[in-house]
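HUMAN: Please help interpret these tokens:
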Amino acid sequence: MVNAPVMTTNIGKSSFPENHALALGTGASTMPKTVRHFLDRADLVFGIGCSFTTNLASTGIPPGKILVQCTVDERDLNKEQQIHHAVIGDARLVLLQLIEEVRRQAGSDGRKGDGTVAQEVKQVKGEWLEEWMPLLTSDEVPINPYRVIWDLMHTVDRTQTIVTHDSGHPRDQTIPFYEAITPRGYLGWGNSSQLGYSLGLSMGAKLAAPEKMVVTIMGDAAIGMAGMDIETGVRLQIPILIIVLNNHVLSGYSRNYPVAAERFGFTNLYGDYADLARALGGYGERVESPRDIVPAIGRAQEAMALGRPALLEFMTKEENSLCRYPAQ
């Protein structure tokens, strides 16, 4: 109605369809280039149902913007950002009222413009994807984790799938590139970042929506923290898909702890998690070649159709290239 580009926060991902012409994707600690491009250039930012809180899984708002905030809780106002205009109310009701006012001021079609904004979104998104396509479609061995995420997205029926992630690199690599197109088709988190949290989260999602395929994307550190809970899924017949990106290392930490990493192997990890899944009664498969990603997902779906949780252990490289674009 107003021809405005739309981004979501980490925990708001999937509240707006990311295949929409005006969708920028999700801004977290990583983001598509479209988010950075339009957020930097915006003169006004309208936050709907968001707190504007800065944390390790947020993008942050560049200074100098006029901020409008719609929230149901007045405690969200002016926490870290000085809000210029506040609307206390339910997001759905406020949006319906805004639509009514836009129609009153601009006519029944609103201010849809000439398509230049949508064209700019398309252009920036295309340039960004072209930049990352070598990793998203990589044939390298060990497997590039971006290839796993890309193939997963193009294999499952996203209208019938719920995806979540664990913290760390699995979160940072999944959020920009997994395109969520239905409400609650993606459960983003990160403000509280316990390793292994997503395993229980995914089982809860499956119980809440048993008709959906539920996927969690974890690293080998995360499954090492919570992997025994696979037995819960076996015992209670909660058929989720656990994707483990196993690169035998706690990615991104060695630069912060160089002495501990070198002297004590602080970031080294070892384990055969496909064997663990089988030992606990689930389906387990280790995948070492990119060409086996899609077939393995199909085999896991067959196991889940029989009521078994499935774990696919993808042997990946340590990939520290992340979609982090600093504010301009």
Observations:
- The first strand starts at residue 6 and ends at 9.
- The mean pLDDT is 94.
- The domain at 137-315 is CATH 3.40.50.970 (Rossmann fold).
